[in-house]
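Subject: sequence -> structure tokens, single chain

Hey, anyone have a minute? Need the predicted structure for the following. Not urgent.
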Amino acid sequence: MNEDKGTAEIAVGSHDTLTKLVFGDKQYFIVGTAHISQSSVDDVTRVIDEVNPDKICVELDQARYMSMTQADSWKSLDVFKVIKDGKGFMLLANLVLSSFQKRMGVDMGIKPGEEMREAIRLAEERNIPFALIDRNIQVTFQRAWSLSSLWGKNKLLAALIGSAFSTEKLTPEQIEELKVKSALGGMMDELAGYLPSVKHVLIDERDQHLACRMFEESGQRIVAVVGAGHVPGMVQWLNDLHATKVSSDISEIVTIPKKFPVGKILAWAIPIAIIGLVVLAFIHSGFTGGLNGLLSWWLIHGTLVALGIILAGGHPLTVILGFLGSPLGTFHIVGSVGILTGGLQAYFRKPSVNDLENLQNDITSLRGFYRNRVTRILLVFFLSSVGGVIGNLISIPAITRILGQ
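Reply:
Had a minute. Here:
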């Protein structure tokens, strides 16, 4: 156990997983866990037994708490509404990350986040107040995306796709190593080097959020159950908070930053550029040249949209109508190509109750991702959108060549 400014030691588990901080009459006990480790569950139980805290804090937000405690919550999912509201990518990213953690948990014979469930179960059983101190997961994803450069966004997408297709399996020994702070330091440094903005949002900002929320909780003995990677940052924040070096105000990190809307400008600029080039082709090369430019763009763009749908395993009619209707998405008549194709897929392959009930199990394998109609819709939405973007970019020089003829 690590102890800052404290006296009595509490031996927990086989690793250095408990950090105790004492500030006057206030004591913090931070249990650093691996989210798919049985010994982490045992550590949580042992600490709560020995500390008998006034408050228990867990690294969850309200949405993940509801998902964890209400098994039927997925049954009310309206995937088309999610896509229409512009949250399709966020849901897909959430499922991909959950799938990786869930696969690891299956290998270890434990549900991901079981130590959080145990902490909440003990709190309810013993009438100990508990608090959900993590930031809303949607805010975290949106901040990570918003604060990333274009290159960073591409690397983030590559990382997500890689985790979705990964067959990596961890041994119990490797899982336990995830709780050792020295081992985690190297992992965090690697993440910071690969995706610094994402590391800042996923780790540093959440260290701040977790520590500030814990700092604001009432009670003299407070136990927090968090992933081991957050412990060093939380310790620093709690020390600085009690030394009044920093404020516990977290309003800045719970909002989506307003940046120059490059994405929105490009979303309109590219269609306008295509229209302008086609009009110029009609003026410069006559009706035949203009028609060739229009058909060239439609063929390239529609083909890559259709290819994305095929790669996602979309319905044949979604492929055909997605190809024919791709201009509607480019010119935002139906919102976006992804909304059009995702909506078509949802119409032709409407998710059943069985799909919703099995969603959490199906995301543990690539085969399950393609078998489940909910994730199939999200794949159609995502891959056709990517195809549409590439198609538009390729079309511009193709039409320009026609102008030069």
